[in-house]
Structure formats: C-alpha cells, structure tokens
Write a structure and sequence with these properties.
The complex is a heterodimer.
Chain A: E1 4-7, E2 10-13, E3 19-25, E4 31-38, E5 42-51, E6 54-57, E7 65-70, E8 73-78, E9 87-94, E10 104-105, E11 109-113
Parallel strand pairs in A: 2-11
Antiparallel strand pairs in A: 1-3, 3-8, 4-5, 4-9, 5-6, 7-8, 9-10, 9-11
Chain B: E1 10-14, E2 19-24, E3 32-38, E4 45-51, E5 56-58, E6 62-67, E7 72-77, E8 86-93, E9 103-104, E10 108-113
Parallel strand pairs in B: 1-10
Antiparallel strand pairs in B: 2-7, 3-4, 3-8, 5-6, 6-7, 8-9, 8-10
The chains are: A mainly beta, B mainly beta.
C-alpha cells in the first residue's frame, strides 16, 4: 500500500551495529505500529503509538526502541543488532476516529543481521 | 521467495473450487475480527472484518463466519483463483474503538492450482 512506506526495503548489517528502520504514512492516521514477522510465528507487536506523545511497548520490545517524530513518521531502532533480530519488519497504521478500524500495512523491511 | 510460509498449515485447492480457511481465536472477550491476505513479498492486506454482534458478513467472493460459542472464525472464498494464493491471517482485538491492539494468528497458506 503506497500510503504506508518503509525504508529501507532490505538491509544487511552486522552484529552490534545500530540501525534504524523508517516508516511514513500519508493516510492521516493517528495510530502507528511496528511488527516483526518470523516464519511460522505470524506477526508480533514490537511497539505502538496512539498519537505523537504516546509510545507503548508491545509483546516483544526488548532490544528495540522507537521514535514518533510526527503524526506521519514512526521509526524503529535496533541499538545493537543481534542475529535473532533477523526478520521481516512491518509498519502499520490505523484510524482512531473513523469507522474503519483495520490496520494498514507497509511493504515491509527485510533485515539480515550477520 | 517469501519465507513467511515455512511451517504453516497449507490448504491446496483447484481453481474454481471454494476455499474455507479456519481460525481459532483465543479471547472470548474479543469484539472485532479481521482477515488479512499476505502475498509473497508484500505486507498484509485487509480482506474483510466482522464485529462480535454479527455471525456472518459477506464481501466480494469472500464470506466471514463467526462462531463465538466455540471461538472460531472462518473465511470462505468462492470460485478460488490463482491470484488468491497467499498466506491468510486472522486477527482479533478486544475493542477496536479503544486502546487495545490486534492479536494475529499464525496464518494459513492457500495454494491454488490452475
């Protein structure tokens, strides 16, 4: 969905490096989310933000941090990457006030930590 | 190819058949349910949703059935096409209008043969 963009789309890094994944949305949604996806485990919530001043830990926040720079931008950082953080990462948005309550996902970032 | 399909339950059907994908959800208090489709290399896409005060909802070629007694959700796809081949996830939430988040199932891979 072009309304939610993620950069980079692919990233290879080394153990111990700090990396940042970025997410931008043009849907005007207040809520933004970061998930990781591993084979056979579905989508697991890392962090979420219901507005610019609100940040909440999800199911698997250890080793990650986030920043909500603006309504449209939500970035995910790995302070010191480790190999078991190799996964697909998805950003999503949802609308607090509208009728439709589904989450809209970006195209994903494939991260490989060596 | 996309590694998200590894170790997933798989449903194989012939083109033109009807497909039924099942999901057992975990929380009897969940109020809102969504089905997502994830094609290889893409983020999950919204298909259809249903609230707990309904037991059936129809979309274009898709029907979602909700059985709250046994905490079961199903997605029926009529006249399945090769383009329907993807991983399908169900998701549940306690309160779509409040401050709860989505919990995703692990997914089912649908393979459609021409």
């Amino acid at each position: 969905d072009a309304d939610v963009t993620q950069t980079p789309r692919n990233r290879i890094t080394k153990t111990g490096k700090r990396i940042m994944l970025e997410c931008s949305q043009t849907k005007g949604h207040d809520r933004m989310y970061w998930y990781r996806q591993d084979p056979g485990l579905g989508l697991r919530l890392i962090y979420y933000s219901f507005d610019v001043k609100d940040i909440n830990k999800g199911e698997i926040s250890d080793g990650y941090s986030v920043s909500r720079q603006a309504q449209a931008k939500f970035s995910l950082s790995l302070e010191s990457a480790i190999p078991n953080q190799t996964a697909l990462y998805f950003c999503a948005t949802s609308d607090l006030y509208g009728e439709e309550k589904t989450q809209y996902f970006g195209p994903g970032t494939r991260l490989l930590v060596l | 190819g996309e590694s998200v399909g590894l170790h997933l339950p798989t449903l194989s059907v012939q083109e033109g058949d009807n497909s039924i994908i099942n999901c057992a959800y975990s929380n009897s208090a969940s109020d809102y349910f969504i089905w997502y489709k994830q094609e290889s290399g893409k983020g999950p896409q919204f298909i259809i949703d249903i609230r707990s005060n309904m037991d059936k909802r129809q979309g274009q070629r898709v029907t979602v059935l909700l059985n709250k007694t046994v905490k079961h959700l199903s997605l029926q796809i009529a006249a399945t096409q090769p383009g329907d081949s993807a991983v399908y996830f169900c998701a549940e939430t306690l309160d779509p209008s409040g401050y709860s988040t989505l919990t995703f199932g692990k997914g089912t891979m649908l393979l459609v043969s021409p």
